[in-house]
Amino acid sequence: REVTNTSINNIILGDIKTLEKMMPNISNADIERDKELAGCSAEGVKAIQVMQLTLQYLRHSQQFLMQKIKATHINIATQRSFAEDCTKVHKKMKLKTKEYEHKIEALNEQALHLELIAKRVCPGLLDKKAAIIKGILEGDAKYLSSAQGGNTLY
User: Fold this and answer.
1) 36: part of which helix (H) or strand (E)?
2) CA–CA distance, 45 with 109 (Å, rounded to integer)
3) Largest CA distance in the chain
4) Closest CA relative to residue 62, chosen from 24, 29, 113, 5
5) Contact present, 81 and 52 (Cβ < 8 Å)
6) CA 128, CA 124: separation in Å to the nearest integer?
7) Residue 118's closest CA among 134, 107, 131, 129?
8) What are phi and psi of 4, to 5 degrees?
9) CB contact set of 140 (below 8 Å; sequence gap of 6+)
10) pLDDT at 22
11) Comparing C-alpha atoms, which of 59, 67, 4 is closest to residue 27?
């Protein structure tokens, strides 16, 4: 009934609001009941029913796609947040790595000083310790048993 009062030309020219307002009425109308009002034959009624089903399908598809779009936006926001968190952790790890590099440098420098002192105080001690460490690394049983039982490096 509302269709008869609507300007099709306005819709063709872009009156989308009117079309959106009418769409639920058109897609859900009982065309069998209103066929005399519409002046349709049985074939016309079937054609209109197919168009109604097409409109219903398109509206359902639109709703489904809108849900998918919303879910995708939420997923993107979640992934973006996760990426930002990862970036923050990465920056912290880089700072920690630099901190540890400085500590390792300081420890290596101390080790060099201790080695120089040990060479002056006990000239053969470092060679003996190096031989013990080499034996342990190579799996020599003689060094393994003494290393497990006691204080062979000191």
Assistant:
1) helix 35-38
2) 94
3) 118
4) 24
5) no
6) 6
7) 129
8) -65, -25
9) none
10) 84
11) 59
Amino acid at 32: E
- Per-residue confidence in pLDDT tens, the chain, 154 aa: 566 777 788 888 888 888 888 888 788 888 777 666 667 788 888 888 899 999 999 999 999 999 999 999 999 999 999 999 999 999 999 999 999 999 999 999 998 898 888 878 877 877 888 888 888 888 777 766 555 555 444 4
At 73 the pLDDT is 97
Q: What is the pLDDT of residue 140?
A: 73
Measured in residues, the chain has a length of 154
What secondary structure does DSSP assign to 91-139, as a single string?
A: HHHHHHHHHHHHHHHHHHHHHHHHHHHHHHH-TTHHHHHHHHHHHHHHT
The position carrying tokens 């097409």 is 54
Give first-to-last CA distance, the chain, whole Å.
Answer: 104
- Separation between Cα atoms, residue 44 and residue 35, nearest integer Å: 9
- Sign, CA dihedral 47-52-53-55, equals positive
